[in-house]
Amino acid sequence: MKKLIIPISALFITGWSQAQLSTTENYVYTKNYLDYNGITPTKTSETVQYFDGLGRPKQVINIKATPSNKDVVTKIVYDQFGRQTLDYLPVPQIGTQNGGIYTDPLANVTSTPYGSEKIYAEKQLENSPLDRILSQKQVGNAWDNKPVQFGYDANIDGEVKKYTTSFNYSTFESSIPVSTTYGANQLYKNTITDEDGNKTIEFKNGKGQVVLVRKMLNTTDSADTYYVYNDYDQLAYVIPPLASVVTSLDQTVLNNLCYQYKYDSRNRLVEKRLPGKDWEYMVYDKADRLIMTQDANLNDKGKWLFTKYDQFGRVIYTGLIAGGSRESMQSQAGPIVIAESRDATGFTKNGMQVYYTNNLFYEFETILSVNYYDRYPEGTPAFIPTISNQSAVLTDNINSELNTKSLPLASYVKNIEDDNWTKNYSYYDTRGRIIATHSINHLGGYTQTESRLDFAGLVQQTITRHKRISSDAERIITENFEYDNQNRLKVHKHKVDNNPQEEILAQNEYNEISQLITKKVGGSSLGAGLQDVNYAYNIRGWMTKINDPENLGNDLFGYEIKYTNPENTNQSSPKYNGNISEIDWRTASSFNNNKKRYSYQYDGLNRLLAGIYSEPGSSIIANNNYNEQLTYDLNGNILTLKRFSKPSSGTTAELIDDLEYKYTGNRLNKIQLPAGVANNYSGYNAAQNDFGYDDNGNMKVHMDNGISSIDYNYLNLPNKILTSPQVFFNTYQLYYKYRSDGQKVEKTYITSQMDVVGNLEPVELKTYYLDGFQYSQNVNFGSVSPLLLRFIPTSEGYYDFVKNKYIYNYTDHLGNIRLSYMKGVSALEIQEENNYYPFGLKHETTYLGLANGKYYNYQYNGKELQETGMYDYGARMYMPDLGRWGVIDPLAEIYRRHSPYSYAVNNPIMFTDPDGMQIDPVNQKEWDGLKSSVTSKRDELQKEVNKINQKAQDKGWDAKTLASKMGDKQDRLNSLNQSLNNMSTLESSDQMYGLNKMTGSEGITSYDKNTDKINIGYVNEGNFVHEMTHGAQFESGEIAFDIESGKSLAQDLDDESAAYKAQAAFDPSSVGGMSINNINNNWLTTLRDSSGQQVYGVGGSAKSGLFGVSINSTVGQLIRAYPAAKESMKSLDQSIKLREFQGVKYKNK
User: Fold this and answer.
1) Of 25, 469, 862, 1145, which is the most buried if we count CB atoms within 10 A?
2) Which residues form the signal peptide (predicted)?
3) What is the Cα–Cα distance from 472 to 833, expressed in whole angstroms?
């Protein structure tokens, strides 16, 4: 935990700011500049944290933080044991006291957006020094009787299987020869029961290793995932639920269903096999850096993907190289540190001049990407700012005081299918922020962006210039952004080329707790929009409405999400754990403007069992027209799917799909029909053909849809799809082109149609994807039509260049495009309406409205629908008719208990797969911004160090003079480089991390067992560096976490010194200007908090260990480091290690 260090005299100064602070209270006042004109701040964010007599926070005030410049106050209370069992939501006040403390901050709660809801979460803690949570109730009246419950027990005899490994000490390989069961009381058993009664039980051994995670389907059945370790405590096998019920784990079962891992003598993962895939191999250099990887498809071709680094460990180029076995390649790479350096002449490969040396593994076949740092490569286009008041551009002249040293400047990416390249360049201002980019595409055209940033780094204006090829006319997109007093986006304007009017895409309004409540979309006048989109939320912050389907008024679309309050209780029950119980929607189209409803049903694993369709208010409410019902195996593979549709005649819904899925492991082999059921061609074409796969688990053959073969590139992306004649299917060919970073750049669709005399003639449609600008060109019966720029996406839909119109999209909470409209001559015109089954197949009654032609095919989850009927998510193609992927999840190891082919863990109503790899990206933009700040600070220091070293050389300084001039700059620079390395470690970790921007004076890094996430809580950028360092200490085994409380364990003075050093390297003022070289354990013991209490050392409030300890420290060592714990630990076996304790979260190495 980091304490903000400020001069003690500052605590007693009055009138030192405009805030009117209470002079009789202890406090910490923080002001962050959000804008600055060079003389005075024009916009600030101010916070005051008040403390009680024991130095505990009791009230946090965000001064004038609401849209109407009112205070937001968070009350903090403690029970009689000093524990924080009630967590209050921040409450907006009726005005501002300019930082003065509030005697009753809850007085006006009922007049806030909270209304009469309960605004605090409540924890019931165990009456013991462990303070373990027994139950926890969330905010909101509906959750008052729906707590999350926690249980702490030991296993009973025979409850858990005991898998043992046989380890070969010569080959470092494991096997699983037998399986017995654990005897009673041999494992720790922790149970979490969520608000809806769904149970998760985790069993751990004495070393703290997770042995089993059990998810209860019902009171008797469960889905069990076992974790098996070898003699070196390395994870050797993961046995997912479907394999856990198999009597004998033979090699076939292991290969089809389990995760298998092998390590070398240096504890490096060198081989792994995921279920449904063949073996993958890894090769490392002497510095333990991953140099080469090979999957099964590359192995068949005798090729490896390689990565080369520079002397600073930065990736400089990648490619493909021919090679032999893993052992052979490791023997070549293992003895050396593989690094290349910048070179003025370099070498040429695949049509690209590469300005690096190629001394090691130089006989490679293909180069795929090249990265440049420090200096721009030859041929870089010059950038001259055109936006007024734009900052100066950072030069790459190393003699300049401010330069681009250490910054990533250019990235060249080759097309996988040919030798054409995309060249990307980045330009920075003098604060190290990217203000412009220039991308030369594979056709020779370009996309250039230029942005004006304000003091806080927010974009004020962006200009995008684009050409498909160099001879095209330039298209110019101009966007302007306006923000309120706390940098909430208020207005987003958009202009195409020299159009006479600037379109206002969005005008946002927020409530007093900063939730977006109204968005005026479209139009050209401030204060008015084509549509007013209104949003509503419940007390948990979950969206409940987009407009109102009960009362559309002038709205074209209304949407309501129900969690705890479904109306159709015959088909759905209230859900309190975040699952959605019911959704209503209505559109203003003349096609069918009845209110429509889906009621949802789930199993104990939160998997969707049914979406029951109805139309409240219609003549037949429960018409079941678009029902979708599913069953699953233990891994989440769909076993059966029933799908209904509106009848062509009569009133009874038509069963169009009654499908039975047949598998080998997780691979879908065939879709069958129940006996006596005929194939219904209006649904899925269940022709009962076999599916085919390659060794990477990619679907190669899908003859039910006419697909006879799919070829994949090394990223497992399809580059060629061929079809064979099938009933109701035209034959076609699809060809894709991708860059080596996975970005799709071209698609060619070839089919045949009959001409006017009845002859079959080829028809071709080519689509280009160029930085958001999408082009298409038709070749019909030998006639080539003009190539057209079709559209570019906007934040609220897209701009149609053919129509010269802005098209606006209504999207639901999943990003599904539900309704598209544009401004007509006299009224709004609906272009398209889309309704979807729960797993994404469109209802067959699609309304195309006034749309002429269909070249904008982005629909479910906002993804592009392909001619195959699949959606392109970027990393994989999704099959909505089958509710699963055709390719194994690239991040399957994060979700080992789920089938690697399952979509959104079979809960497509709550989750999306943004790119086909993970359920939800977390904090990435915030993380990238923080990393950019650390990088910028590092670069500033590097320039200062370079300048001093240059002066020392020019003036002939001796070592003493140089040291006096340098001070601690070099040490700070080294520390910042280590911080960036730590961030890279966290980025590549299989442990999930989250960010939490906090108010007050201190941050904290903690563990959340409900999400298995380590949360880095920080109050400012310097504090982030401090707390992030603790995250890195977890990765290295220096600290651990108590699973129940989430607090850190084994965090000693050495760990705190390291974190303060990292913080001081970034911002010396945050530690009172202390030199990084003077921060040590002795200095820590001098620190006092605002109440004067010692923070570190004997009796310190932080309770940090006095001596160095880690997860491998024994009880005896822990007692020495924590003398206050002697009485409670003296009866324990003094040789037991911390990681062997129950309830300890630590990093498995």
Assistant:
1) 1145
2) 1-19
3) 35
H/E stretch holding 546 reads: strand 543-546
Question: Tell me, what amino acid is at 396?
Answer: D
Task: Read off the pLDDT of each residue in 101-126 and give the average, rounded to a whole number.
Answer: 95
Query: Contact, 1073 vs 1089, CB < 8 A?
Result: no
Assign residue 866 a region (left: φ > 0; alpha: ψ between -120 and 50; beta: otherwise). Answer: beta
Tell which wins on pLDDT, 982 or 422: 422
Q: Taking Cα atoms as reference points, which of 631, 636, 625 lies closest to residue 674?
A: 631
| Ramachandran angles phi, psi of 82, nearest 5° | 80, 20
The closest of 390, 391, 481 to 430, measured between CA atoms, is: 391
Structural element, H or E, at residue 466:
strand 459-467
Encoded tokens for 367: 């180069």
What does the pLDDT look like over 791-834, one tens digit per residue? Answer: 999 999 999 999 999 999 999 999 999 999 999 999 999 999 99
Give the residue from 643, 687, 693 showing the smallest Cα distance to 669.
Answer: 693
Q: Which of 732, 766, 776, 723 is nearest to 751 (CA)?
A: 732
- pLDDT top residue among 992 and 243: 243
670 membership: H or E segment, kind and range: strand 667-672
3-state secondary structure 76-141: ECCCCCCCCCEEECCEECCCCCCCCCCCCCCCCHHHCCCCCCCCEEEEEECCCCCCCEEEEECCCH
With DSSP H G I counted as helix, E B as strand and the rest as coil, what are the percentages for the chain, rounded to 5? 15, 40, 45
Name the DSSP letter for residue 352: E
Q: Are 934 and 1066 contacting, i.e. CB atoms less than 8 angstroms apart?
A: yes
In which residue are the tokens 């370099």 written? 346
Where helices occur in 778-892 by DSSP H, the ranges are none
Q: What stretch of H or E contains 1060?
A: helix 1053-1066
Backbone angles phi, psi at 8, to 5 degrees: -60, -30
Q: Tell me what the mean pLDDT of segment 345-349 comes to.
A: 96
Query: Cα-flanking dihedrals φ and ψ of residue 1008, to 5°?
Result: -115, 110
**In the β-sheet with 1048-1049, what is the strand arrangement from edge to edge?**
1048-1049, 1040-1042, 1144-1145
| Beta pairing, strands 280-284 & 1144-1145 | unpaired
pTM: 0.81
Closest CA to 239 of 267, 268, 261: 261
Residue burial 709-741, b: 16+ Cβ < 10 Å; e: rest = ebebbbebbbbebebeebeebeebebbbbbbbe
Q: Determine phi and psi for 109, rounding to 5 degrees.
A: -55, -40
| Nearest to 771, CA basis, from 423, 330, 410, 288 | 423
Tokens 């959605």 identify what position? 580
Question: Do 816 and 804 contact (CB within 8 A), yes or no?
Answer: no
pLDDT of residue 269: 92
1089-1104 pLDDT, tens digit each: 655 667 777 766 677 8
Ordered DSSP codes for 401-457: SSB-TTSEEEEEEEBSSSS-EEEEEEEEBTTS-EEEEEEE-TTS-EEEEEEEE-TTS
Grouping H, G, I as helix, E, B as strand and the rest as coil, residue 328 is helix
Q: Are 195 and 144 in contact (CB under 8 A)?
A: no
Report the C-alpha gap between 204 and 201 in whole angstroms.
10
Q: Is the CB of residue 563 less than 8 Å from the CB of residue 576?
A: yes
**Residues shown for the chain:** 1149
Q: Around Cβ 574, how many Cβ atoms within 10 Å?
A: 17
Residue type, 534: N
| Percentage, residues of the chain above pLDDT 90 | 62
